[in-house]
């Protein structure tokens, strides 16, 4: 099973001092990339802006890893890319995904969240 087929992905970003900060997120896979979606004002977004070096691993909904972590590169997507990730989340996670994306748009506005593209290192 590929990481894009998992229900949750443990995305680990790193603080300036190298401290890992793991976060479980919904994930979708397209081609050779993974995509996640998150509010723009989170620490992980700030850390990805500074450095796109991350690690990813499959996990459960609490963030407990269920497989090995791999190094990857992450980048923040533009508005069109973020819209695409929202659609993919809705498609993969069904009604719950669609309701969550809709609720987020109501609370934060369209630009209150951002899609993140993650490419695992080979």
From TrEMBL:
Please indicate if the UniProt record lists Oxidoreductase as a keyword.
yes
List, alphabetically, the Gene3D superfamilies matched. Answer: Electron Transport, Fmn-binding Protein, Chain A
Superkingdom as given in the UniProt entry: Bacteria
GO MF annotation, one: oxidoreductase activity, acting on the CH-CH group of donors
GO CC term (a single one): cytosol
What keywords are assigned to this protein? Oxidoreductase
InterPro entries hit by this protein: F420H2_bilvrd_red/Heme_oxyg (IPR052019), PPOX_F420-dep_Rv2061_put (IPR019965), Split_barrel_FMN-bd (IPR012349)
Q: Spell out the protein name for this chain.
A: Uncharacterized protein
What organism does this protein naturally occur in? Answer: Saccharothrix variisporea
Q: What is the lineage of its organism?
A: Bacteria, Bacillati, Actinomycetota, Actinomycetes, Pseudonocardiales
């Amino acid at each position: 099973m590929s990481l894009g087929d998992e229900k949750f992905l443990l995305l680990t970003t790193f603080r300036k001092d190298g401290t890992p900060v793991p976060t479980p997120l919904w994930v979708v896979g397209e081609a050779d990339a993974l995509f996640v979606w998150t509010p723009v004002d989170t620490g992980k977004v700030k850390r990805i802006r500074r450095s796109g070096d991350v690690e990813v691993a499959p996990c459960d909904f609490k963030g407990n890893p269920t497989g090995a972590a791999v190094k990857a590169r992450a980048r923040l997507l533009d508005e069109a890319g973020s819209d695409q990730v929202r659609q993919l989340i809705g498609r993969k996670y069904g009604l719950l995904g669609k309701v969550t994306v809709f609720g987020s748009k109501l609370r934060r506005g369209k630009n209150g969240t951002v899609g993140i593209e993650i490419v695992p290192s080979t």
